[in-house]
């Protein structure tokens, strides 16, 4: 698990280094902000369309081999991009094709690597392992963003892609030496057809109240909150009369809160949808207070707990998502989740932008926070008032009055 964490840190740093310079590269090639947005959509589109098939592949194929091959392929794409940038041969069409291929491979790589980490610890430690993964992700994000400027400044854009390629190969070289821990949940590859696997994954997700509840909580939070890089940027540079430096300070506090939240999330032993919902509602209320901030200093005080709550909520939700389904279904469930999450990531920013156009930055933060807290609160009340089903007990020719059926607590 230590080796896997180190490998993931290196890979995350490389990925964020590449992401940091990728938009600048598109702008450099095309000179168009619209083309930059299009390249991001092209890379995200495969997750929307074929994530369910990628999850089915993860359940069907050996997990270590799947993760190693997908990492090697992503590394190869990064190297090809670096070479074409160095030779000044990269045009818009080639860039879009490489982005689309990267998105396709990621539909398999994402769930494979996520579930592989869970195989390295006993079943009872999986929530903690997911928390460690979140911490590694946050640390890699900070490191990669910092290294991007240094790498591009001294070595050029191609070097950032080459470094990311090396990070993928490092992960691929570590995977063959990983060994499952005693007491880990065993993964047995399925032998059924992919189409049947996909159908079973969709059916399981739709019939599982916990997963539907988690989707609802995460969806409303993703659309009306969380996009702090958008809402807080407008708030800081607008009503609070700050500049780029002020927003950089806010972004730093957000990142620090994410790391603190990941540490706290790693200590969760029994994550549940109820915990995720409570944290999301608390985050919504903190967002309301942030929207009312009269000064940058007050906003900074509110931003830290907002980021901590968001990070703990994300860690708890990921733990539920990866531990609730049976082991042979987890890849398909993550595939379904990937498609749903892509809808939120593509639809959330435009919806929030429209809300800001109508109500301003403060109004969007306040209204969004109230919608999040109100929706989750209403859902909790409705769930608590839902009558338990009755189970008739037959005795001879009569039916005894029903006794409340036991349901799975969400």
Strand order of the largest sheet: 1-2
Structural class based on helices, strands and sheet pairing: mainly alpha
Residues in β-strands, percent: under 5%
Uncertain segments are 390-410
Number of helical runs? 13
Number of E strands: 2
Shape field: globular
Provide the gyration radius in Å: 23 Å
What is the H-and-E element order?
HHHHHHHHHHHHHEE
> Which percent range fits the helix content?
over 70%
Q: What is the residue-averaged pLDDT?
A: 84
Q: Report the major sheet.
A: 2 strands, antiparallel
Q: Report the end-to-end length measured between terminal Cα atoms.
A: 30 Å
Task: Give a short synopsis of this structure.
The protein is mainly alpha-helical and about 400 residues long. The chain contains 13 helices and 2 strands.
Write the layout of secondary structure elements.
Elements: H1 2-30, H2 33-60, H3 63-86, H4 92-118, H5 126-155, H6 157-174, H7 194-206, H8 209-224, H9 228-237, H10 244-265, H11 273-291, H12 296-323, H13 330-385, E1 390-395, E2 398-404
Antiparallel strand pairs: 1-2
Explain this structure:
The protein is mainly alpha-helical and 410 residues long. Helix content is 78%, strand content 3%. The protein contains 13 helices and 2 strands. The protein has a two-stranded antiparallel sheet with strand order 1-2. A hairpin with a 2-residue loop joins strand 1 (390-395) and strand 2 (398-404). The chain is globular.
